[in-house]
Amino acid sequence: MQKKLSICILHIGTPKTGSTAIQRFLQANYDALSRRNIIAHVKLANQLAKAFTPWHMRTRFLKKSGLQDPQQHAQLKKKAVQDLHEIVSSAANDQKVLLLSSEHFYMMASRNIDITTVKEVLDRYFETVVVVCFFRDPVDFVVSSYNQSLRGAYSGSLPAFIGQYIGSGRWKYFSNYNAWSSVFGSDRCFFVPFNPDQQTNYDVVRHFCALVNLDPEGLNFSQGKRFNPQMSAKLTAVYRLINIWVPLWKHGTGQQDVLNPANFKLKRFFERLWFIKHGSKLRLTKDQKQLVRSATYTEYRRMLEHYKAGRNALSGSTGESE
User: pTM for the whole thing?
Assistant: First the structure.
């Protein structure tokens, strides 16, 4: 009979809610958490997210992973499940909790990917599976995502970006929650509002610790004490010029992807400049805010009302006292 741990906490995002800061915190405190009977795995979570994404979806996520054919994807899935099996089987008897974090799980519902497969695999190894997810005001989400996209080689306009965002499933909080809760159970899915006043990664990580009832005493928070970078208006103009100039400069060289490699080096350079950390944040116009809110209002408000109606934080999930 397969050995089981008591709890798996699956942190699934959403994007732009401090997920990277949380994952760095978990990696930096792996040994300290292990001594508290908590096994934190970020790499395994990303492997499982790739494995549970069907090959025929052909998402950008899978393409960036270097998977060339369905056979490679099948091998990845086999290896990810085998790694999970080895972690659970080799865990000491007093290690009761596995904490997995990957925002790539979140979009499964909106892409109509079968979440029951995830539950079936996790149920083999855990008595209980709990899903944790932060969600953010759609207007704040658009601004933050647009800033990040500019740094990652996006050359489109803000109105075009808003149009793409409205057409995506990222903001469908209530629908995605219903999809996850229908599989894992409403008492095991915790979607929590992301506080826009949390300006530092440090605050985001502390919020996560409070949510999963994890005592922060003695843990390393050095990964998250700096302010999150904000894109200044001047830097935005520079990036727009770069995104126009680089493709023209590389035209005819036969290089398939010229934007990301070039902008990665430029990003490293600009991140060292003072104004990327303290520049004035881009703001949506009144009409743009109204456009986003009118498209996302129902889902966002229903999720807020659902949370306020009695969604308590994960009381005692890690077995630690507050």
Answer: 0.80
